[in-house]
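Listing S7. Sequence submitted for prediction.
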Amino acid sequence: MLHTASLNAFEMVADGSRLSLVFPLVSPGVRRGLTACAGEPHDGVLPQLHHHERKREIEELLNNFAQQTGAWRHCLFFLSNTRNEYVMMYSLTVFENLVNKQWMGVASQDKMEIRNCLPKLLLAQHKAMPYFIRNKLCKVIVDIGRQDWPMFYHDFFTNTLQLIQTPGLASLGLVLLKTTSEELACPREDLSVARRDELRKLLLEQVPTVLGLLTGKGCSDRCSVKTV
């Protein structure tokens, strides 16, 4: 995953047409570094970036950007204002690392804003997103639920059930439900044993509701989910 994220970040920077989107929001030091690493484009290609040292420098600079306080706000802007797949994947990777590795240190108000903004972004743009970007965003939202549901994210699961029942959004709801089932039924070991047990119990409590909803609505091919 980390290697994939680094490659995505590297290719994002190599796409010179998108550097102008990132530059206004990064620190001056990172901006100067990216400019120096990118060099001058030639026919839309940056041959010098293929050198291992250039790639390492760019990865380091983008990693430094991701560690900046409030970097997630910039990434939320990127997700809302670009269709570049590399920028979107890099931004989602920043969110993924924030939720899974730094969530305990994030301010409560910031957590609330992230919980509110990412689902809204998904609803607003899921049709225009490549399916793998959509699935990645769903995964980040589920990761938040994995951390905060039910105490701080009361409507996490009910929102998914509502999507499944909403015309035009059933497939999106099923993506979220599938991801939730995968992540909560067998939680990764970065959570405490008590929290893993709690998540499994919470998910089991929802099984009758989910089965009743799916069988009652008779989801068919129109609800099929593309995940690969």
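Caption to Listing S7: primary sequence and predicted structure tokens for the chain studied. The first helix runs from residue 2 to 14. Confidence is low (pLDDT under 50) at residues 1-11, 16-25, 33-46, 220-228.
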